[in-house]
Every structure is written in structure tokens, then in C-alpha cells.
Specification:
Elements: E1 2-8, H1 16-29, E2 33-39, H2 41-44, H3 51-67, E3 76-79, H4 85-94, H5 99-103, H6 106-112, H7 120-134, E4 140-142, H8 148-165, E5 173-175, H9 210-218, H10 236-249, H11 253-258, H12 263-289, H13 292-321
Parallel strand pairs: 1-2, 2-3, 4-5
Helix pairs in contact: 3-12, 4-7, 4-13, 7-8, 9-12, 10-12
This protein binds adenosine monophosphate and tryptophan (TRP).
Length: 326
């Protein structure tokens, strides 16, 4: 079985981009992978978040994983901060990475924009992500397109470390879906849908009420030429609706475009398809959130299993780099 690891920040509600870009693949492959899925609360600290909100969202994200279809008997679900090997390994990797390569990370450039007040953790964020992955000797990392560059960095750090100190790390590979690897904002179709963009109309949260999903699709930005065609460059709004329908139905966006002559009809079908896809998840989510004790117990079991593996990798890396054993 291939070892797999991926993570999501508990910095906001899970949205359709998280599901189609990442979580859907996790669910599809459970049973054939030896998989670890982590709620990366330490990463959420790189931007301002209220402590009570962070605690609440960490549990909500765990409930979201289960509601979306992950089975805790087949995969390990845990909270990043419960496993101390992550930040410990991150330090060894920070001393492997260079300022130059971290400066080239586009996510830092987008969120940090060179301001003095940006948190130092946002700059070193990709190194902590590398530690998350390398600690589990993950061969595959199922993520959306926006994480491709971070995976490249992870590979480079692992290769460099192994070169200097011996074969400690497995070199991981990103697995990025062929459809919906980058789900766009419904109001700003040139930007990716994201937890951090405060545009409630642009984002569809995974456990949103059906009537709200219908409203948001109805208001989604299109264009004025009135032709249903798939061209993400010239017709980003319409193309992104076709992408959503394609992800929900399995038919290619080009074939779907040929079936429609009016934006209204396309939007009605997109809304129906998304409601059909998401409604059962919403029911499960509401049920799970009614018993947080069960979730906490599950996360504790996950952390125990994760801790053992991550700690063993950390110890090997620490020994290889020359830290004296205790
Ligand atoms: P985040 O919400 O940034 O923690 O992302 C968690 C996972 O969802 C990562 O694998 C991302 O690549 C993926 N993801 C986030 N936003 C999108 C999006 N708009 N389209 C596709 N995948 C996404
Ligand atoms: N950086 C990822 C994101 O914002 C989240 C993440 C943290 C992650 N650690 C990871 C993803 C390890 C995959 C593997 O989406």
C-alpha cells in the first residue's frame, strides 16, 4: 500500500475547492492507500485567528473530513499540533532550506506582499509543510494545483538533506486531479476559491444549505456575449461553471458546453448537481457536530498512531544531522 499524506488548514469553512481539489481524491483512494490526513492547526497560526475560533474550526474540519466520506477505520486523521515531531523536524529542514528559495514561493508573495508586519511563520510555512510530508515517508501527496510549488520545495529539501546526511527521507510526489484542480471564485473567476477571500458569494462552503448554493450559482459572474463555450482564458466565469458541472457529473466541460444555449439553463443544472452532491454530506456533518466527544476521541487515536511514525523519522533525521541522542 502506498503511503499518502495530505493536510487542510482549519482557518475557515471547508469549501468546494477543498473537496474537488483534494478531499474527493482522498475518499476515492481510501482502502487502497495507507493514508494520513492532518488538520494543520500550526499552519493556521501564520495568519490572525481568534483562539476560540481556531479550536472550533479544528473540530469542524475533522467533522468535515468524515462527512465528506473519509472512514477513520481506513485512514488516520489527526491534528498536526498533537504530534511534536512536526515542528521539531521543521527546524532541521529550516536549516536545510535557504532564504532565496523560500522567497520564491508564490503563496508567500501573494499573502505576504513584502510587508514588515507579516508573520515570520508565513515565510517558513512551506518548510513546516515539508516536515508534515517527510515525517510520514509519504510517497504521494494529493493536493490542489496551488500546492504544486510547495511540493517541489519539499522534494528539493528531501534530496538535499539525503545528499548531505544519508538516505533519511522518501522523495514524495504530488498527485493533482485532472479536473477541478483549481476551483475558481464565483464572483472573481480569475481567482481561486479560498478560505481567506472574504467574498461569501464567491465561495460555496461544503455544508451550506441547498437554497444558498442555488442562490450563489444563480448570481455567479458570467459575461455578456451569451454564448456557452469552454474557454477559461476568454470566458472564465462560464468555464468555471462548466468545470463544476464536469467535476460533479464526470462529463468533460467541452461536451457539456455543447448541450447548452443559455446561461440560465447551465446555472440551474450546476446548482442541481452540486446540491445532489453535497446534501448527504451536509446531513452527516450536522449529525457529527452534535457529538464532539466522539470526534475528540477519534483525533486522539489518530495522534497516537501518527506520533509513532513521525517520531521515528525525526529521530533518524536528528541522528543523521549530528544531534547527540538523549
Ligand atoms: P487549504 O484550504 O489552503 O488548507 O487547502 C487544502 C487543500 O485544498 C489543498 O490540497 C489545496 O490545494 C486544495 N484547494 C484549496 N483551494 C482550492 C481550489 N480553489 N481549487 C482546488 N483545490 C483547492
Ligand atoms: N499548505 C497546504 C494548503 O494550504 C496545507 C498543508 C499543510 C498540506 N501541510 C500539508 C497539504 C502537507 C499537503 C501536505 O493547502
Amino acid at each position: 500500500m502506498a503511503r499518502v499524506l495530505s493536510g487542510v488548514q482549519p482557518s475557515g469553512d471547508l469549501h468546494l475547492g477543498n473537496y474537488l481539489g483534494a478531499i474527493q481524491q482522498w475518499v476515492a483512494n481510501q482502502g487502497s492507500d495507507d493514508a494520513f490526513y492532518t488538520i494543520v492547526d500550526l499552519h493556521a497560526l501564520t495568519q490572525s485567528i481568534d483562539p476560540a475560533e481556531l479550536r472550533r474550526r479544528t473540530l469542524e474540519t475533522a467533522a468535515g473530513f468524515l462527512a465528506a466520506g473519509l472512514d477513520p477505520n481506513q485512514v488516520t486523521i489527526f491534528v498536526q499540533s498533537h504530534v511534536p515531531a512536526h515542528p521539531r523536524l521543521a527546524w532541521l529542514l529550516e536549516c536545510t532550506a535557504t532564504m532565496g528559495e523560500l522567497n520564491r514561493m508564490t503563496q508567500f508573495k501573494d499573502k505576504g506582499r513584502g510587508t514588515e508586519s507579516v508573520r515570520a511563520g508565513l515565510f517558513t510555512y512551506p518548510v513546516l509543510m515539508a516536515a508534515d510530508i517527510l515525517a510520514y515517508e509519504a510517497e504521494f501527496v494529493p493536493v490542489g494545483e496551488d500546492q504544486r510549488q510547495h511540493l517541489e520545495l519539499t522534494r528539493n529539501l528531501a534530496i538535499r538533506f539525503n545528499h548531505h546526511y544519508g538516505e533519511v527521507f522518501v522523495i514524495p510526489e504530488a498527485t493533482i486531479p485532472t479536473v477541478a484542480a483549481r476551483v475558481m471564485d464565483l464572483q472573481l473567476p480569475n481567482q481561486k476559491m479560498s478560505k481567506s477571500i472574504p467574498s461569501p458569494l464567491g465561495r460555496i462552503d461544503l455544508f451550506e444549505a441547498p437554497e444558498d448554493i442555488a442562490k450563489k450559482i444563480k448570481k455567479a459572474v458570467t459575461d455578456t456575449d451569451g454564448i456557452v463555450a469552454y474557454n477559461p482564458e476568454t470566458k472564465p466565469g462560464v468555464s468555471s461553471l462548466l468545470d463544476l458541472l464536469s467535476a460533479a457529473t464526470g462529463t468533460s466541460p467541452g461536451d457539456l458546453a455543447a448541450k447548452y444555449t443559455r446561461y440560465g439553463d447551465l446555472k440551474a443544472d450546476v446548482a442541481d448537481a452540486l446540491i445532489t452532491l453535497l446534501s448527504p454530506m451536509r446531513e452527516r456533518y450536522l449529525h457529527l457536530m452534535s457529538d464532539p466527544g466522539e470526534l475528540t476521541a477519534l483525533l486522539r487515536r489518530g495522534a497516537t498512531k501518527a506520533d509513532e511514525i513521525a517520531n521515528a523519522t525525526y529521530e533518524r533525521a536528528a541522528a543523521a544531522i549530528g544531534l547527540l541522542p538523549r
